[in-house]
Structure formats: structure tokens, C-alpha cells
Amino acid sequence: MSKFKYVVFAVLAIAMMTIVAAAQPGEGAADNASTVSAARAIAGGIGFGLAAGLAAIGQGLVGSRAAEGAARNPGAASQVQTLMIIALALIESLVLFALLIAFTVVKPS
User: What is the mean pLDDT of the chain?
Assistant: First the structure.
């Protein structure tokens, strides 16, 4: 029953989104530029937010696993710390790349 409830709410949400899309006026060519720029801004914000959020989860996992590794084997703590810093730098570079892509997408043409 629980899964059925989620399916019903998902279908209801999609149906409500189609109502808004169908309510647009017929003369869409005049308003196309502002609609495209608004969609670009929303897509850039959602895309970068998703990339930054998932990278934060990844960085948290890297940090916790490095702390676990150093606690299990204190003799290898310096090697684990070095690998952790490299992994964090690579994850952060991917977030900066996502920011660059978001700025490129949102840039008005």
C-alpha cells in the first residue's frame, strides 16, 4: 500500500505540471526568449546544486573512511591522510568544473 501511495502522488504531481504547461498562451514565439532564459537559470541552479550536494556527500564519506583507516592502522595514518587530501582535491575540482558548466549554461546569448 505504501508504494501505491507514492505512485499516486507522483502521477498527481506530473498531472499538475502538465496543467501549467498547457495553460500557456498560443502566441509562444513572442515570449520564447524569456522562457528559455528562465529555464536555463533553473537548470543551472538545479544542476549545480545537485553536483555540489553529491560532492559534499562524497567528501564526507572520504573523510569518515580516512578517519576509520587511520584509527585501524595508526602507522599508516600519514599515507591515508595523503590519499584523503588527493581524493578531496579531485572531488572539489569536479565541483568547480560543475560551477563552470553552470555559468556557461546560464550565460545569456
Answer: 85
pTM to 2 decimals?
Answer: 0.64
Q: Report d(CA 32, CA 39) in Å as an integer.
A: 10
For residues 49 and 57, what is the distance between their CA atoms, to the nearest angstrom? 12
Distance CA 30, CA 68 (A): 59
What Rg value do the Cα atoms of the chain yield, rounded? 22
> In this model, does residue 30 exceed pLDDT 80?
no
On the question of pLDDT at 62 being above 60, the answer is: yes
Let me know: does 103 contact 71? Beta carbons within 8 Å: no
